[in-house]
Amino acid sequence: MVRVVWSVSRAALSRVRPEIRPGAGVIDVSLQIRLGDDASGESVLRADGVELLRERHAPGSARLTRDPERGLEHLDIAGVVLCTRRGDEVIFARAPVLGRLGIEGGRYEPSPTKDAER
Q1: Does an H or E element contain 91, and which?
Q2: Which residue range is the domain that position 52 belongs to?
Q3: CA angle (64, 9, 7) in 5-degree steps
Q4: Is 4 exposed, middle or buried (0-12, 13-18, 19+ CB in 10 A)?
Q5: pLDDT tens, 64-87?
Q6: What is the reported pTM?
Q7: What is the Cα–Cα distance from 111 to 29, expressed in whole angstroms?
Q8: Does residue 17 belong to any structural domain of this protein?
Q9: Counted domains in the chain
Q10: Cβ-proximal residues to 109 (8 Å cutoff; 6+ apart), any chain
């Protein structure tokens, strides 16, 4: 499993998802991706205990590559996420899935994911 967590403005998220309580501060938005041996998978996006999105990915739609010399892992699922990790640390992440939910554009920093699994 690959897990990426972003800190997003609670106000921005509650404007597009009424099930998220409005308020000040930030909220963690977690994207968990399970990959199958045939490059299929499933993505689940959650915030505040609420499932915002669940999608299945067809065989061959997920591309996971490893660069053992640099200790990097790259994941690309079109329309969902493109991320690079070193161990459990997210170095770069672009998440079209956030925009598809209607979350305002901007820069959302990945949060540390100490409990990330591979």
Answers
A1: strand 89-94
A2: 2-111
A3: 35
A4: buried
A5: 999 999 999 999 998 899 999 998
A6: 0.80
A7: 9
A8: yes
A9: 1
A10: 6, 7
